[in-house]
Amino acid sequence: MSKLKTNIEVDAVITWVNGNDKYWQEKINTYSETKIDFSSKKHQKRYNSIGEIDIAIKSIIKFAPFFKNIYLVTDNQKPKAFESLKSLSKNRGINLQIIDHKIIFSGHEEYLPCFNSCSIGSMLFNIPNLAEHFVIFNDDTFIMSNVAVNDFFIDGQPIIRGQWQKFNEQRKLRKFYLKFKSFLGMPDKKGYSFKKLQQNSAKLANTERYIRRFHTPVCLRKSTLENFFKENENLLEENIKHRFRNENQFIISSLSEHLEIKKKTFHYRNNAQLTYFRNYKNLFITKLKLKWFEQNKNKIFITFQSLDMADDKSLNYILNWIDKQLTFN
């Protein structure tokens, strides 16, 4: 039995926007056809932040110190605690660096400013000196247990976490439902769904099915994307030209995963190893889930979606729990 390759160099990449930044709010409203009311509850849920980026960075520093670099990709923004985070990461042998959109969009500046995660994500492999193996993190998903390289890559090949599913057009009930809606003159309002964008990505790789990804970090190899876009440069250009999300776009991380699936150079996990929060109404349930996370050694990731929408009591409990987890000895 061959020994696992665990000494490969791995970088972490986090895309982040400070939705509370007034200058950024003015900028997006300059380009958006529909002006955003940032005081509305709907848009507070999407754009507000309460320091999740600090938690995301700290969690990598503490529980995954094998990462060589943490690249924070932003649009001329910097977290308030950046300098202290940079010092903390340096003490653990990790380089924390801000990468501006202008850097990754070099040669394609006409598409800036960009407010579209699909477009921004498509350019992440252009980060200067990015390692061959890198992991993309959402700023609301945290590592909360000790991990190793082989939780992300096995023998240099990426781990893919998700569930195999058929494409929409392969599902008979779904096809009938869409035809019925069309007959009634009802539009398909889910044209911009994350699920559809994942399917768009898989189809570019010509896979027979697709993996609907869990809300977990995504493992990629830079050469997989570079080789694909050498032959499909027009696809990249078409994807990044949209300042706002378009239903015909693909997601770079899903594309990369399905290119690896096509080549059979991946390792599949149908266990997310994730505890997922999206509702904070019941503090008892919240406490129970956090306690179960502590007890279940298989769990390594936690997602707190729209944490700023939690009531004060639940929010304080969660933040105190996180602080305890991220205490450095």
UniProtKB/TrEMBL annotation:
Domain Stealth protein CR1 conserved region, chain residue ranges per copy: 10-33
Domain Stealth protein CR2 conserved region: 46-154
Keyword line: Exopolysaccharide synthesis, Transferase
Pfam family, one: Stealth_CR2
Database matches in InterPro entries: Stealth, Stealth_CR1, Stealth_CR2
Domain of life: Bacteria
PANTHER family in alphabetical order: N-ACETYLGLUCOSAMINE-1-PHOSPHOTRANSFERASE SUBUNITS ALPHA_BETA, PTHR24045
Family indicated by similarity: Belongs to the stealth family.
The protein's name in its UniProt record: Stealth CR1 domain-containing protein
